[in-house]
Automatic annotation (TrEMBL), chain A:
Domain of life according to the entry: Eukaryota
Pfam annotation, one family: BAAT_C
Family: Belongs to the C/M/P thioester hydrolase family.
Naturally occurring in which organism (per UniProt): Champsocephalus gunnari
Domain BAAT/Acyl-CoA thioester hydrolase C-terminal, first and last residues per copy: 236-440
Protein's GO biological process: acyl-CoA metabolic process; fatty acid metabolic process
Name by which UniProt lists this protein: Acyl-coenzyme A thioesterase 4-like
From TrEMBL, chain B:
Originating organism: Champsocephalus gunnari
Active site, per annotation: 218, 310, 345
Family per similarity comment: Belongs to the C/M/P thioester hydrolase family.
Gene Ontology biological process terms from the UniProt entry: acyl-CoA metabolic process; fatty acid metabolic process
GO molecular function list: fatty acyl-CoA hydrolase activity
Protein name per UniProt: Acyl-coenzyme A thioesterase 4-like
Gene3D superfamilies given in the database record: Acyl-CoA thioester hydrolase/BAAT N-terminal domain, alpha/beta hydrolase
SUPFAM superfamilies listed in its UniProt record: alpha/beta-Hydrolases (SSF53474)
Domain BAAT/Acyl-CoA thioester hydrolase C-terminal: 189-401
Domain Acyl-CoA thioester hydrolase/bile acid-CoA amino acid N-acetyltransferase: from-to ranges: 12-127
InterPro entries with a match to the protein in the record: AB_hydrolase_fold, Acyl-CoA_thioEstase_long-chain, BAAT_C, Thio_Ohase/aa_AcTrfase, Thio_Ohase/BAAT_N
Pfam families per record: BAAT_C, Bile_Hydr_Trans
């Protein structure tokens, strides 16, 4: 390997030759890495290209992002430049790295996150640093091999979207309103047992023109304690829906509900109330019943031990919750009756869901609606190889992550195979937005 | 931009509103009819009237103008490049022409337009007595460099340099008319000021000293050409000259350019609207070689951008004269001229408001305000800006990044 010589400017240039290829020289600027658009929403595509490289040479493109907690996420892909010295992620296949094949957004969904990392502050963007490295290397070799870089911002919130903390009538949540006068169609946004307030999907909905309300129901300091239990009941969810409906900038006749995981049960339960009339329901990988009881009218709750007997462990001690929501294991009286459903219901299944029995619950819901002669309301999207956490696209998926630290440290399995899960997120998000448009705007 | 509504055959007005840094409001609006699905697509549908008509994808930005009741003679410029230009785009029912704030608003969105990409670094430069700002692209470099010169009025105008850095060129916006040095001494800077600026770029660890360009607008063109041809202290890879001239006394200090202009100030005239036309100061193009840069000695590629309705400088006449000089000398292969019919003097990066005339301060003592006519017709000028900017970027990339056949590197092994 020929060492690199620094050069005095009034001498003829000396090239730095690596592996028989002239990569950089004092006669030529560094190659150029571009990303377009450099500022965009999370669900927008980005086009990443390298220019002015030697032809037919190995390069690595890597992406780095820092989560709100300061954890570093990375993805990388190996390419060979083509004859005109360019690499174009929209056109060229990756031959190694975090993903394979031609995947324009692969560096984004292929990011490997630190456990438990998710975007908590939606008012700031993810800053993505993309680098072009020489050769087929791993990102750890970035310092010595970096040729060019570009920074892109990825946002959950479009300019003009308003974020409003809601602590009203005992309801705890965050409301996102699009810019403009409204009234807007709206969505109530429910997540799973991980708890807290998950805002990013709502922020994106608002960026796409829908008022959206992220609701907390477990694991939040402003809710009645203790935090590891659900201490709210049906009245709480009804209040939340009505609060959203009654908002002066919400179009009350066009309010839908979306739920992921345990949020599916809450969605179905809420829609079952005769005085709650959503315009549409979207259910992602969740149960139609539950062994966990919500708080009763007096705010009393039961312990949550019952489910643990259905937990299964692999040889590394990673837990799968899948069997908990098998219809056979669900308490019969909790199974939501759907005979009175009047609005369209979309159920999204990740066929490799290791956290919930999504296929079985989708079947159950479909059968129930069929029996009530309401099949026309049901739409199923089923994705082979997709896991439990089907979320907005171009964001990383974890096959497993840290679930709890107390009373014991537990890592849980979500499932999902990288490229298939990414494809599921991209397709389902598009279909979710179309479904919302059909049912909330017409 | 799409807009969906319940009703069919709906007449709509789309309105853009922007508040600039000094508090003035700018607006544009256009009348559309929604199609059968209740959709308007500004990129494809024709405007039936308003601030513009026809199919204009960027019309709501390019046609922004001061709202009724504003001061006259305003010129839009963004001085703080670290924040975006925010524009609120709204939809109103019917074909409205005024009183937008009192109308019933159907929907609106906010868009942000940036001069600076994320990761671009803004570095104030004061070394060597310079008043300048350097913009560095993301990444390790080395990057090609560029010296960015504006025209009359001076000040540190950063937006074009920020934009160029966002395209991979380390660019230095240089104040050479009102720098600290001139404020203190009352004297105009000289050639060595620009040579210092060039050296700062050349010696920067992240800038490739052998790939430095110069871009000048208006008065800045004269300086650029003077430096490109005569300065021993710098070697340019290429130059871009917008709306300017090679006419200037070439012997003696740069300050003589000002003396020359002042001497000819009597040629200034006003049109029927009392708008001042300065273009005649340099006409006719002199035949005396000591009064114009010897273009035959230029050794680097040159892109000349000319608005044929330029009322401020005789750019067309100068371009023609420069071309003739270069043809006679045999170096005209270096020259590319972009000439735009009905475009005016201020050919700037695209999709920003057009100014046909605006208030400028004269350098008399005390200074007075006059309405200077820049020229140009809105649509033609906007198109010229779009086309010229795109071609400028291609020209700069070819000369600063390209220039070496990649195939050659393999044959050397």
């Amino acid at each position: 390997m020929i060492p690199c010589y620094t050069v005095q400017r009034n001498l003829a240039c000396i090239q730095r030759i690596v592996g028989g290829v002239r990569w950089t020289s004092s006669c030529r600027p560094a190659p150029l890495l571009t990303a377009s658009p450099v500022r965009a929403l999370i669900d927008d595509k980005i086009s990443i290209r390298g220019h002015f490289l030697p032809p037919r040479c190995p390069v690595t493109v890597c992406a780095q992002m820092q989560s709100d907690d300061g954890d570093l996420w990375e993805a990388f892909a190996h390419f060979n430049t083509n004859l005109d010295g360019t690499v174009n992620l929209t056109r060229d296949p990756s031959v190694g790295g975090s993903y394979l094949g031609c995947e324009p957004m692969g560096l984004l969904w292929g990011l490997q996150p630190a456990p438990g990392a998710e975007k908590k502050k939606v008012e700031t963007p993810y800053v993505m640093l993309m680098s072009l490295l020489k050769g087929h290397v791993s990102p750890s070799e970035r310092p010595s091999t970096e040729l060019a870089a570009v920074t892109a911002e990825r946002w959950y919130m479009a300019p003009g979207v308003r974020r409003i903390d809601i602590r009203q009538n005992g309801v705890v949540g965050t409301l996102f309103l699009p810019p403009g006068p409204g009234p807007f169609p709206a969505m109530l946004d429910l997540w799973g047992m991980g708890g807290g307030l998950v805002e990013y999907r709502s922020a994106l909905f608002a960026s796409r023109g829908y008022a959206s309300f992220s609701l907390a129901y477990i694991g939040h300091k402003d809710l009645p304690g203790p935090q590891h239990r659900i201490n709210v009941g049906d009245p709480y969810f009804k209040s939340a829906f009505q609060l959203l409906q009654d908002h002066p900038q919400v179009y009350r006749d066009r309010v839908g509900i979306i739920g992921l995981s345990f949020g599916v049960y809450l969605t179905l339960r809420l829609a079952n109330h005769s005085d709650i009339k959503p315009s549409c329901l979207i259910c992602i990988n969740g149960p139609a019943g539950s062994n966990i009881k919500l708080a009763d009218a007096d705010g009393r709750t039961e312990q949550m031990e019952n489910d643990q007997k259905y937990w299964t462990y692999d040889d590394q001690g990673t837990v799968s919750f899948r069997a908990v929501s098998l219809p056979a294991n669900l308490s019969p009286e909790s199974k939501v009756e759907l005979d009175h459903l009047t609005c369209p219901l979309m159920y999204i299944v990740g066929e490799d869901d290791l956290s919930a029995s999504s296929i079985e619950n989708a079947n159950l819901i479909e059968e129930t609606l069929s029996a009530a002669v309401k099949s026309q309301l049901f739409t199923r999207l089923s994705y082979p190889g997709a896991g439990h956490l089907i979320e907005p696209p171009y964001t990383p998926n974890s096959r497993a992550s840290l679930w709890s630290v107390k009373p014991q440290k537990l890592v849980t399995l979500w499932g999902g195979h990288l490229a298939l899960h990414a494809a599921a997120q991209e397709d389902s998000w598009k279909k979710i937005l179309e479904f919302m448009e059909t049912n909330l705007r017409h | 931009m799409d807009m969906k509504q319940h009703c069919v055959k709906l007449s709509l007005t789309i309105h853009a509103l922007h508040q600039c840094e000094d508090g003035h409001s700018w607006e544009a609006f256009a009348h559309y009819n929604a199609d059968a699905t209740g959709t308007v697509n500004v990129s494809q549908d024709p405007s039936l009237g308003g601030t513009y008509s026809g199919v204009e994808p960027m019309g709501l930005l390019s046609n922004l103008r001061p709202v009724p009741g504003s001061k006259t003679g305003l010129r839009w410029r963004k001085m703080n490049v670290q924040t975006p230009m925010g524009v609120t785009i709204s939809v109103y029912q019917g074909h409205q022409t005024e009183g937008f704030l009192d109308q019933v608003l159907l929907a609106s969105v906010v868009v942000e337009r940036w001069y600076m990409a994320p990761g671009v670094r803004r570095v104030p430069i004061t070394e060597g007595g310079l008043t300048a700002t350097l913009f560095l692209p993301s990444g390790p470099g080395p990057f090609p460099g560029l010296l960015d010169l504006w025209g009359w009025g001076g000040k540190l105008v950063e937006y074009r340099a920020a934009l160029l850095a966002s395209h991979g060129i380390a660019s230095m916006a240089l104040d050479y008319l009102t720098p600290q040095m001139t404020k203190e001494t009352g004297r105009m800077v000289d050639i060595d000021y620009f040579e210092t600026a060039y050296r700062v770029l050349e010696q920067h660890p992240q800038i490739l000293g052998s790939r430095i360009a110069m871009l000048g607008l208006s008065f800045g063109v004269g300086v650029t050409l003077r430096m490109a041809v005569y300065s021993k202290g710098l070697k340019l890879s290429c130059a871009v000259c917008i709306s300017g001239s090679h006419v200037q006394p070439i012997d003696g200090p740069l300050e003589q350019m000002l003396t020359y202009l002042n001497k000819n100030a009597y040629k200034m005239r006003s049109d029927e609207n009392n708008q001042v036309i300065w273009r005649d100061l340099m006409l006719p193009i002199p035949t005396d070689p000591s009064l114009k840069v010897d273009m035959g000695r230029l050794q680097c590629p040159l892109l000349l951008v000319v608005g044929e309705d330029d009322q401020n400088w005789p750019s067309s006449e100068s371009a023609m004269d420069m071309k003739e000089m270069m043809e006679r000398a045999g170096n005209s292969h270096l020259l590319t001229v972009l000439s735009y019919k009905n475009a005016g003097h201020l050919i700037e990066p695209p999709f920003t408001p057009f100014t046909r005339a605006s208030t400028t301060k004269t350098d008399t003592n005390p200074p007075t305000k006059v309405m200077t006519l820049w020229g140009g017709e809105l649509v033609a000028h906007s198109r010229a800006q779009e086309d010229a900017w795109r071609k400028t970027l291609v020209f700069l990339r070819e000369n600063l990044y390209g220039g070496m056949k990649h195939g050659a590197s393999f044959s050397n092994l």
